[in-house]
Amino acid sequence: MAGFKKKASREMPEMNTSSLPDLIFTILFFFMIVTTMREVTLKVKFTVPAGTELEKLAKKSAVSFIYVGPPTDALRAQMGSGTRIQLNDRYAEPREVMDFVAAERQGMANQAEQTISIKADQRTQMGYITDIKEVLRKSWALRINYSASKRN
Amino acid sequence: MAKKKKKMPGLNTSSTADISFMLLIFFLVTTSMDTDMGLARRLPQPPDKDQEQAQMDIHERDIMCVRINSQGFLWVSDGNGSGYAELADLRARAKAFIANEQNLPKFPERVAKNIDLLGMCYITENHVISVQTDRGTPYNVYFTVQNELVAAYNELRNELAKAKFHREYAALTEEQKVAVRAYYPQRISEAEPKNYGGN
Fold it and tell me: pTM score, two decimals?
């Protein structure tokens, strides 16, 4: 009887995993695209203040950061513990902000939307912030953003 | 003797998954998904050197002045008088000042203005909240003050949105948002520090 041949053994067929690498690659590419490598090494340490009425920084490509705070522990021996301003990878004076803004603006596609995000330590004295703001005004970088963390 | 045709053995790809897993984990670890948050502000345009600074005619009733000294204490002066103030009271005080619901003469004048979707409104269009700081003011206090003032505006806008459109401000359409913003324009003056400015 042809239809009732006894089967040799019932084994679970192995799952086909040949598409697994493709799957993983897809996830990998997703993460590769969303990843933004931190391009500057922080030379100042800061804890941003906390606020409730915060907005997200919308256009990442049009944002430049200014860091304000005391030097990191490793650099404190050389640089002291006074408040410093960091632009790109080095310490700077408030007046250098103008060049920094101009240089950052050069590389931007949408220059009108240039936003400066000020990441300042919460114990900073306002004098430093005011100096930066004055220079920003003079260099027509009027959109600013006080970086902060969310508080409930 | 004719040899059988040799077949190329297939490349063993069973480790591809492991390799891509490793890469995946590397990117997972290095990714910082943190979205930067912050308080967005707009600076005033730089003063014109050639021109005389346009003296804005601002009535005393239209100004609320918040001064923060180097110790981080607040001195608020508005229609309710001037004196030291607590940070916790600032929001309510700013709201009363901005809205001036009873049209009191000590608070900003309500001017008639035609706004799309809302019609003829009487709004405190000319009010100014001026924040002045000392060079020694802690940034933290300044930021919290700014935050409270923005919160006052946001709460007022939210209340208006609920009253007129029965929805939260965030859920409004773009035209409705524009109308609500026109009703409560944000007028926080980033006052220039004392040692700058010619006048």
Answer: 0.78
